Amino acid sequence: MNNPYLDTIEQALFGCLPQGKHREQKLLDAMRYSLEAGGKRVRPMLTVAFCALCGGSVEAALPFACAVEMVHTYSLIHDDLPCMDDDDLRRGKPSNHKVFGEDTALLAGDALQTLAFEVLSGDEAAALAGDSACRRACSTLAKYAGCVGMAGGQMIDLLSENTQAPLEVLQELVSKKTACLIRAACELGCLAANADAAKLKAAAVYGEGIGMAFQIQDDILDCTSTDEELGKPVGSDAENQKSTFVSLLGIEKCRALVDSYTNQALSALDAFDGDTSMLKSYALALAQRKN
Amino acid sequence: MNNPYLDTIEQALFGCLPQGKHREQKLLDAMRYSLEAGGKRVRPMLTVAFCALCGGSVEAALPFACAVEMVHTYSLIHDDLPCMDDDDLRRGKPSNHKVFGEDTALLAGDALQTLAFEVLSGDEAAALAGDSACRRACSTLAKYAGCVGMAGGQMIDLLSENTQAPLEVLQELVSKKTACLIRAACELGCLAANADAAKLKAAAVYGEGIGMAFQIQDDILDCTSTDEELGKPVGSDAENQKSTFVSLLGIEKCRALVDSYTNQALSALDAFDGDTSMLKSYALALAQRKN
Question: pTM for the complete prediction?
Answer without folding.
Answer: 0.95
